[in-house]
Structures are given as C-alpha cells and as structure tokens.
Amino acid sequence: MEDYHVAKFVQFHGLELGLFAIYDGHLGDSVPAYLQKHLFSNILKQEEFWVDPGRSIAKAYERTDQMILSHNPELGRGGSTAVNVILIDCRRLWVANVGDSRAVLSRRGQAIQMTIDHEPNTERDDIENKGGFVSNIPGDVARVDGQLAVSRAFGDKNLKLHLRSDPDVTNADIDNETDLLILASDGLWKVVSNQEAVDIARKIKDPQKAAKQLATEALKRDSKDDISCIVVHF
C-alpha cells in the first residue's frame, strides 16, 4: 500500500477551500508522500490561480514534477499518480489528474467522470513518437516501455523521456443537484464502475463510512491493487 491522501478545509484569501487528493505511488511511497506535502501549496501560492486556475494548476504540476526529479537521489526512482480537487466556497470545483486515480461527481444520482484515465494504449502514439514503446509483456497489462501501466505520472526518472506529467484539468459548478464526489485510486475503479460507486455512496449519509464501504466492496470483489477512497457530500 503506497497511497497517500489529503482531505481538509482551509481558509485562504477570505475563502473556504476544500482540498482533496489521492496519490497512488509505485516503487515506494516517497513520491506520493512528497506530493501530499507540496502539491497543493505549489498550486495555491501562484497569484494567477485566482485569474486562470487551469493554467495555474498545470504549471504547478510541471514545477512539482521537476522538483521531484531534482530530488531523485533522496526520493528514489519511483513515481505516483495524482488526482487533486479544489473546492472553492462549496460553489466551484477544480479537478486535475495524472494517471488512473479518478474523480467521479454525482448529479441527481448520475455518475459523471471528471478525470481521464491515462493509459498507455490510449496515448501510444505520443509514447512512440518520443522513442518509447508500449508492451503487454510481462503480464497482460499495457505498460510504457514494458514497465509502467500508466502513461502519465510524477517522478519515474528512468521513464521520463517517454512519460508525461501534464494534467487534464476540468471544472464544475456545485448546485442543488450535486450529490457527492468520489476520489479513489485504481484499486476501486478496476472492480467497481462509476455508477456502482455512486449508488453505494448515496445510500450512506456519513461520507467517511461511505468511503470505507467502497473500499470494502472493492476487497469483496477481489481487487489486488492499492485502494484509497474519499467521499465528499454536498
């Protein structure tokens, strides 16, 4: 289990910000631990966040990845996926991700995927254009250079020439029809669909109990990967 998470509210520039994230590490937990400490602060310390949040988040992802790579001897050769959510005064939601940790929003009980799973087969052309390759050997999962099962991640210095770390960024308004938000690492999504996750979480009023129930359900379905989950009720 190499996951780290963030789930907290902070006061910032007179606004209430909800900060939620899941970082799913590979080859050790040093990179997700680093992200837990630094990524949100790297986003929010940029003044342009309040003018152009999407650009600011993308720049912070790039800067954080450079910082991780520059600390390679200390942090090791591993890496991490990330899904980050910033909730502004419970009215506006900004979501960013690299890798296959996912954010799913529920409106009137309907699941809406807010992130894009960055899988090697879907970004094969980009990987090959950079001189890399995608292979299902060893195993039966497509991997960048036969090693990593995601096409975007923080860290992974030995793969960085063929691996992206720029995020997909989306946003949404929170209104009276918005029920909840689920963030989870791929250990949940490999065995539970977006709609199934929403249906399970909506039945439980306490969000922490809902998150635990989703993790339990993934285990019942024999998930073999890291399982971390956050549920935010609106």
Tell me what you see in this structure.
The chain is of the alpha+beta class and 234 residues long. Helices cover 30% and strands 31% of the residues. The protein contains 7 helices and 13 strands. The chain has helices at residues 30-44, 53-70, 72-75, 124-129, 186-189, 194-202, 207-220; strands at residues 3-12, 15-26, 79-80, 82-88, 92-98, 102-107, 110-113, 134-135, 143-144, 154-155, 168-173, 178-184, 229-233. The strands form 3 sheets. Strands 1, 2, 3, 4, 5, 10 and 11 form a 7-stranded antiparallel sheet that branches. A 4-stranded antiparallel sheet has the order 7-6-12-13. The chain has a two-stranded antiparallel ribbon with strand order 8-9. A hairpin with a 3-residue loop joins strand 4 and strand 5. The radius of gyration is 17 Å and the shape is globular.
CATH topology: Phosphatase 2c, domain 1
Second-tier CATH architecture: 4-Layer Sandwich
Helix-strand pattern, N to C?
EEHHHEEEEEHEEEEEHHHE
Give unreliable regions as ranges: none
The CATH superfamily turns out to be PPM-type phosphatase domain
How would you classify the helix and strand content by structural class?
alpha+beta
EC number: 3.1.3.16
Catalytic activity: O-phospho-L-seryl-[protein] + H2O = L-seryl-[protein] + phosphate; O-phospho-L-threonyl-[protein] + H2O = L-threonyl-[protein] + phosphate
Protein name: protein-serine/threonine phosphatase
Cofactor: Mg(2+); Mn(2+)
